[in-house]
Design goal:
The chain is α+β, with helices and mostly antiparallel strands. The chain has a single domain, classed as 2-Layer Sandwich (Nucleotidyltransferase, domain 5). It contains five helices and five strands; from the N terminus they run βββαβααβαα. It has a three-stranded antiparallel sheet, sandwiched between helices. It is globular.
């Protein structure tokens, strides 16, 4: 699963892209109604993806993101210093523990382009997606 969070001053978005063994892809993008920091958005993207996987009853899940902080915090390399990130870190770790085989890997941004594009769609104003062309600053 590739995940990513997109930040805009008044809203955020999370996206996940599932690559399945037969070569298929399931892209998902979510607009979030709360204001989150960039770090929180990355956690939210991963949490949403993990919530979806609960319905799939998977034993193995490989995860990829281009944002190092969340990955290193979940691996215990970095401490979680911000109190606002601790609940997301704890939630993510509880989901991680439900898999027999779970991995987190940092990848260059160019390899996370599908998830990145989906998240940018999630921060567009609603009318841009449903009424035609729209310019967003």
């Amino acid at each position: 699963m590739y995940f990513d969070g997109a930040f805009q001053s008044d809203r955020g978005a999370s996206r996940v892209v599932f690559l399945i063994p037969d070569g298929g892809m399931i892209p998902l993008s979510f607009s979030l109604t709360e204001a989150f920091s960039r770090n929180e958005l990355e956690y939210q993207a991963l949490i949403i993806g993990l919530e979806i996987t609960q319905e799939l009853d998977l034993e193995q899940l490989n995860n990829f993101d281009d944002f190092e902080l969340v990955i290193w915090q979940l691996k215990g390399i970095y401490d979680v210093r911000k109190d606002t990130l601790k609940p997301d870190n704890d939630t993510t770790k509880s989901y991680m523990a439900q898999f027999d085989d779970f991995s987190l890997s940092h990848i260059p941004s160019r390899l996370n382009s599908q998830a990145d594009a989906l998240s940018k769609l999630g921060v567009l104003p609603f009318n841009c997606l449903h009424q035609g062309p729209c310019l967003s600053g």
